[in-house]
Amino acid sequence: MESLTWDSQALWQSDDSRWDGTERRRRQREGAGLALGVGDAEILDIAVQRDGCLVAVGRAQAGSLCKMAVVRYQPDGRLDLGLGGEGILFPSDGTGRQVCIQFDGRILVAGQVDLPEGPRWKILRLLQNGSPDPSFGEAGEIVLPCEPLDASMEFSLQTDGKLVLSGNGRFRGGAEGYLVVRLHASGRVDDSFGLGGWARFRTH
User: Fold this and answer.
1) In-domain check, residue 1
2) What is the number of domains present in the chain?
3) 56 within a domain of the structure (yes/no)
4) Is residue 3 part of a domain?
5) Which domain holds residue 45?
6) What is the tens place of the pLDDT at every residue in 31-46?
7) CA 124, 122, 36, 99 torsion: positive or negative?
8) pTM, entire model
9) Residue 6: inside a domain, yes or no?
């Protein structure tokens, strides 16, 4: 039986703890990540909570099993056991590519998941203890009708609580381009934005 493990002693390595957006995008374009431990595992994004804790997201893989991974470290580098009891979660299939911390401490994770009909964008929201947030989407997650064309993705949180996700993709099997979607805090698509909540920009 396939199982996932995580090296609890591994902490992300970077010369610049601020790890700004330019560096994050560079790592995404190059397909890079920060190795977390045994097997095929990597960090793809990091956010800092108001209390100084670090929340990292990425993926962990064993054989054909690939899971989104979320890990939280205390400011001194120790795992924060307040997240799921171990400091480490594998809350969903797929790859976590972006993380945002809401003003109330809830954790938003955006990434990609492979479905029978093809890859799709996926967003999760977790409570501070790591449990799925039942007030977001369906059981704490939503899958958007966008086929990502590469690993690029940007995810931001507006001051009014709305979410903006963008990246290169194909909407509902249609034309390709740079796609932007805005969501209400509940995870519902914001129809007041663009065309039905979506905007597309041609890239070539």
Assistant:
1) no
2) 1
3) yes
4) no
5) 21-201
6) 333 434 435 778 899 9
7) negative
8) 0.80
9) no
